[in-house]
Amino acid sequence: MNKFKSLLGGVALSVAIATSSLAAGVELNASSTGLALQGYDPVAYFTEGEATKGNWKITATHNDATYRFASEENKAAFEANPDAYLPAYGGYCAFGAAMGFKFDGDPNYWRIVDDRLYLNLSEDIQERWEGDIPGFIEKASANWNEIADKDPAELQQQ
């Protein structure tokens, strides 16, 4: 566990610096401009089965964040039911949430579990998360109640 804490600690500082939460609320991982998922199309994970960059000309706003889409069809699907496509834990790393932290979720390290999109920080973290997906989802969901409204940097200081 000490090795893991060391890994998280080393990553935590750089991620805390890189992660910029919206002023409206820190429960959503978005850039300082409000761009969610680093511009990736949330619907494409479900329809294409891969991380797909969205087009800057095809956007929708939901909860003060801007989402980009690869097609007008994906935008329409999102607008009809955004909750079906939003990533768990506001787009923060699912494994990090299980550990009680908020790290930037990388749109390239993802998995859909029970019709829910989960992002992780990196390939190594994704592999650890895949070792016990149900257990980590349970821990993350329990932790999320406590950390959703906290700034990522605040969690690093605890």
From TrEMBL:
<feature type="signal peptide">
    <location>
        <begin position="1"/>
        <end position="23"/>
    </location>
</feature>
<protein>
    <submittedName>
        <fullName>YHS domain-containing protein</fullName>
    </submittedName>
</protein>
<keyword id="KW-0732">Signal</keyword>
